[in-house]
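Try this one yourself first.
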């Protein structure tokens, strides 16, 4: 069984526009821009032997604002820029009442079965309460970092930023004692 780190996409791995207090996901590949600060951090996770997996709600696919072709092009960019093992997408809108739109845990459960993840030892990284709630329902540890979208749902760790979140996971899964160093997986 492998250990996975399941990471929210928008606002964590790529930049988003803000409209009032709402994050607006990019709708074209041209406006898709990787958050460069995430690159060395994800490389550190990969080097520790964990699987690095993206999960994302993209309701624009359901209501027609986002085409599958543009999304595929964005994810080609994401895979080229970051050491990712997989990307799981919920294409539904809230009205579809699907089991995969976060805060529901469907995407995490799908990743668990596809990659044989040990959820007890796996982590979710995000800046949003929806991911913390999905992590709780799927049985993995949520490592959330500060944002206006943290909310008041249960989370296991709340840290100042993405770097602190990644460092926390590395600290939890790799014992500090030099004689006991082993990879997470
Ligand atoms: Zn869905």
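Now uncover the answer:
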């Amino acid at each position: 069984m492998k250990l996975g780190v399941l990471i929210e996409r928008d606002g964590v791995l790529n930049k988003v526009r803000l409209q009032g207090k709402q994050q607006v996901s990019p709708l074209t590949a041209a406006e898709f821009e990787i958050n460069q600060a995430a690159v060395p951090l994800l490389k550190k996770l990969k080097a520790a032997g964990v699987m690095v997996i993206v999960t994302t709600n993209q309701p624009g696919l359901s209501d027609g604002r986002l085409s599958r072709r543009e999304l595929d092009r964005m994810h080609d960019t994401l895979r080229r820029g970051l050491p990712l093992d997989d990307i799981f997408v919920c294409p539904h809108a809230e009205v579809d009442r699907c089991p995969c739109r976060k805060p529901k845990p469907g995407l995490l459960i799908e990743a668990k079965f596809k990659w044989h993840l040990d959820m007890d030892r796996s982590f979710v990284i995000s800046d949003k309460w929806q991911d913390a709630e999905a992590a709780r329902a799927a049985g993995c540890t949520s490592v959330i970092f500060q944002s206006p979208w943290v909310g008041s749902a249960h989370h296991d760790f709340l840290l100042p930023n993405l770097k602190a979140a990644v460092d926390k996971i590395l600290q939890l899964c790799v014992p500090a004692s030099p004689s006991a160093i082993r990879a997470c997986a």
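Discussion: The chain has a mean pLDDT of 94. Residues 165 and 171 are 10 Å apart (CA to CA).
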